[in-house]
Amino acid sequence: MLAKTYGSAVYGVDAYKITVEVNVGQGTKFFMVGLPDSAVKESEQRVESAIKNLGYRMPRQKVVVNLAPADIRKEGSAYDLPIALGILKASEQILAEKLEEYVIMGELALDGELRPIKGWQKLFNIEVWIVKVGQGNITACLSPSFSLSLLMLAFLSRKSKTLLLGWN
After folding, report:
1. How confident is the model at residue 119 (pLDDT cuts 50, 70, 90)?
2. In this structure, are residues 7 and 20 in contact, taking their beta carbons and an 8 Å threshold?
3. Which of 71, 136, 147, 162 has its CA nearest to residue 112?
4. Residues with Cβ < 8 Å from 89, sequence gap 6 or more?
5. What is the DSSP string of 97-148?
6. Residues of the chain above pLDDT 70, percent
7. Minimal CA–CA distance to 3: which of 107, 104, 97?
8. In this structure, what are the phi and psi dihedrals at residue 100, rounded to the nearest 5 degrees?
9. Fewer beta carbons below 10 Å: N end or C end of the chain?
10. Smallest Cα–Cα separation from 22: which of 58, 76, 71?
11. pLDDT, tens digit, for every residue of 27-61?
12. Rounded distance between C-alpha atoms, residue 53 and residue 47, angstroms
C-alpha cells in the first residue's frame, strides 16, 4: 500500500516542498531513494526503534521510501516523523486518511518522543511543525513532550481542519 505526505528542504536560500512517499509491499528490505544524506538514511534505525517502542510493528516486508524530487539533496533528521507516519499508514496500522494534506517535519528519539529540528526551531520557535498544504498558515504545532502516539491520536480523532496541541 502507498502512503504520501510532505516535508520541506532548504537548498541555498530557497525552500522546497518534498514529497515523502512510502510503499509497503512484497519483499523484505528497506530502501530509501531520492538523494538522502547520511542523517536521512540513518532515520531507518530511529524510525524502526520508535515504531516498536510505541507498540506498533515495523513491517517485515519491502519498504520503499521515496523523497521527491530526486535532484534536491535531503539533509538532517527532520524527515523521521513523516517517514514513520508513512510507514504506519502504508502498513495499515493507522488510518490517517488526510495525511497527504500536510507538510510534516520532526526528529524521533528511539522511544518515540519528538526532538527539536535544527534550523526550523529558530524560524518558528517550535519543535515540530505541521503545515496544511496549499495554505501559508501553521495548522498544528507540537512540543517535544508529545510522542508519535499522541500525534497519531490527534490525526485519528480530530474533527476540525485546525489543530493546535501545544507551543514550545
Report:
1. low
2. yes
3. 147
4. 1, 3, 22, 95, 96, 99
5. TTGGGEEEE-EE-TTSBEEPPTTHHHHHS-SEEEEETTSSSEEEEE-TT-BH
6. 69
7. 97
8. -70, 0
9. N
10. 58
11. 999 999 999 999 999 999 999 999 999 889 999 99
12. 10
| Assigned C-alpha cell, 86 | 508513512
Mean pLDDT estimate for the chain: 76
The count of other CB atoms within 10 Å of the CB of residue 29 is 8
> Considering Cα of 54, then 59, then 102, then 32, what sign does the dihedral take?
positive
Q: Whole-angstrom Cα distance, residue 142 to residue 153?
A: 13
Strands 138-142 and 114-115: unpaired
Q: How confident is the model at residue 143 (pLDDT cuts 50, 70, 90)?
A: very low
Q: Angle 54-57-58 (CA atoms, 0-180°, nearest 5)? A: 115
Give bridge partners of residue 67 from the DSSP assignment. Answer: 20
Q: Cα(first)–Cα(last) distance of the chain, in Å? A: 35
- Calculate the alpha carbon distances from 120 to 7, 29, 50, 105, 156 in Å: 12, 32, 22, 9, 26
- The crossing angle, in degrees rounded to 10, of helices 148-157 and 80-90 is 60
